[in-house]
Amino acid sequence: MRPTYRSLSGLSLASAMLLAAAPAQAQQQLLPAQSRVEFSARQMGVPLQGHFKKFDAQLAFDPARLASSRIRFTVDTGSATMGARETDAELPKPVWFNVPQFPQALFESSSIKAQGGGKFDVAGKLTIKGTSVDVTVPVVLTQSGGTTTATGSLPLKRLAFKIGDGEWADTSMVADEVQVTFKLALTGVGKL
């Protein structure tokens, strides 16, 4: 004889539990209008600033269950802008982001560790232009009302991802280090 579950309004207990758990994850969303992803570099010693206009996050983050929490963050590389038409026309080309072949950069978390005081180390793989590198991103979370804000920065070596290769590989022209900073407004994250 097979075990049976008592139904709740026509649903099995197992189904009811799954439905009750699903909305908590589905409610976690990025608020793009309140978020930003910026980058800075140096060309011949002069600081350059830019940002990405399109990015998205899919997350299942529970501060009480970090082992099962996951973050997947994508950036549309074709949305990069540095505020000058000539520069913006160069960024999608093969030597830089190669947008036709690699339209998105991707970060996928593999582990999240609490450091106390709303600080977390998020380890994972960052993939840009088909090259994946293991990185650890220090993130600070703050909460106000129903919004959780994640802030942080990550230094990258652009040549590790073949960004600005060929004649632009000369680091006396464009420095190898690029600083990526972010502020991500999120909804649906549990109390820290």
Could you describe the 3D structure shown?
- By secondary structure, this protein is mainly β.
- The chain has a single domain (27-187), classed as Lipocalin, CATH 2.40.128.
- 10% of the residues lie in helices and 49% in strands.
- It is built from 2 helices and 13 strands.
- The protein has helices spanning 13-26, 85-90, and strands at 7-8, 11-12, 29-30, 36-43, 46-52, 55-60, 70-76, 80-81, 104-116, 119-128, 131-144, 147-157, 177-187.
- Strands 3, 4, 5, 6, 7, 8, 9, 10, 11, 12 and 13 form an 11-stranded antiparallel beta sheet that branches. A two-stranded antiparallel ribbon has the order 1-2.
- The longest helix is centred in the N-terminal third of the chain and has 14 residues, at 13-26.
- The protein is elongated.
- The model is unreliable at 1-26 (pLDDT under 50).
